[in-house]
Amino acid sequence: MKIDRDEAKRIAGLAHLEFDDAGLDRMAGEMTKILSYIDQLREVDVAGFDSGSSAEATPLRDDVPRPSVDRAAVASNAPAFSADGHFIVPKVIGE
Amino acid sequence: MSELLNLPWHEAKTAATARELVDASLCAIDERNPALNAFLHVARDAAGGMPVAVKDNIVTTGMPTTCASRILGSFVSPFDATAVARLRQSGCSIVGKTNLDEFAMGSSTEHSAFGTARNPWDPTRVPGGSSGGSAVAVAARMVPAALGSETGGSVRQPAALCGVVGLKPTYGRISRNGLVAFGSSVDQIGILTKTVRECAELLGVIAGPDPLDSTSSFAPVDDYAADLDAGIRGLRFGVVREAVSQLEGEVRANFDDALAVLRGAGAVIEEVSVPTIGYAIAVYYIVANAEASANLSRFDGIRYGHRSARAKTIREVYFESRGEGFGDEVKRRIMLGTFALSSGYYDAYYGRAQAVRARLRADFDAAFARFDYLLTPTTPEAAFAIGAKTDDPLAMYLSDIFTAPANLVGIPAIAVPSGFWRGKLPLSLQIMGPRFSERALFRAASAFERETGYWRELPPVCT
Lengths: 95, 463
What we know:
The complex is a heterodimer of chains A (95) and B (463).
Chain A: H1 5-14, H2 21-38, H3 71-77
Chain B: H1 9-15, H2 18-36, E1 39-42, E2 50-55, H3 82-89, E3 92-98, H4 132-139, E4 145-150, H5 156-162, E5 165-168, E6 188-193, H6 196-206, E7 236-240, H7 241-244, H8 249-264, E8 268-272, H9 280-295, H10 314-325, H11 328-341, H12 347-368, E9 373-377, H13 393-397, H14 404-409, E10 413-421, E11 425-432, H15 438-452
Parallel strand pairs in B: 2-3, 2-4, 7-8, 7-9
Antiparallel strand pairs in B: 1-3, 4-6, 5-6, 5-10, 9-11, 10-11
Helix pairs in contact in B: 4-5, 6-15, 9-11, 9-12
């Protein structure tokens, strides 16, 4: 599988990652090399093997209220937090 | 005083007080860590107790958790991981947080944002990774035990390269609550110690179900140290043909020596085929990175961690915070994972990888129908030079060729020291068992350790 600069740019957009042109070229080259190794999976006979998860059923815990994370601790970790208890972000609407 | 830390845990705790043990640990860290960079944070105010180091992608109150990434900034977790809470409740003291490849993505600890850790047997070489700091901390006798984490061999591979015992338990055996998520269907907390007994005793402390991790297992917690002296006479070990057929030179000779030791202790050893084992690295890099691309979307510069000072719009907060905060290897893996899940490629990559994984699981089941254990070397080579593989991601990935299968299949596996390459760099034997066979794994590992005694060898930094 060959990844070119445009494809690397498309994937970076999906992944919310920023690269300059040199970074995109490097990433495209490395991904092409790694994916060519991964392409050996095409030769495996997987007839009869499901591609879905075979994990056991996941048990659920009781849905009862319990103390949540301390708000002061959340505030101290946040890049921007308002005095009345909200995360502050740049304007989203009308961007 | 640091000689206390050369003793196995059950001897050390009768030879000194809890305070003396922690002081000995902090003293050894002060003396040896500057040259080795195993610790990212040292808890100078640690309470008395059995000193334990914790990989810095497992959250702890009262000290930072960085994942060796710039994107977490000065993050301090408001809660303890379940495994950490259980350690503290049992009288252990967390003396520090250990270095790792950023977000546990790597096999050498060179992808840490805070500098590589160094191998105590030869500081020009890597300690392995991603739990490199934890392996160095135990190997250089700065702590008797450390927690690490595994997604594809990140406990066993550094344990092997540093000459210590490393356990990857069955998927679900230890709660993942508080382990910063990488590949959720493969992640598992693991344990690194000097000796098999210490590893077995610690597993008993931290294993068991947890309402905060719905994938934690309700399987009963065993008495993991019960069979350590039971021996292995008559037990059946399968040597994985596809894995060992390519071994050469001293690594091959060391592995053959290990088989002779087991045979001498009464084990029955035969070759067995696991036909798809050679595809594990290819499967791993699709499955784990696909899951990572989703898990790491939470690092967005909004709720915690680094926010770019240049960002003016919400889009810039996402793209620039992540662009500045993540290192190259993390970006490469997010890109690969995003690609494998993207429209048009999902079936060909993610779907196919999951199907091969299902076949790999069936191949292991067939092997375990005939054998109690499966054997390979833990790694294909001894510790490599710092810088040797940083420009070749694929070569780095292949360091995990023998360890990644156990993560994909969900089985437990243990790395035990098996001698030295050219007389000075550790090599390691890997023993794998069926799901929830940890007690039997410790039995076999203990028999091997008793016959060989490599844990008594100390790296130059300790002598």
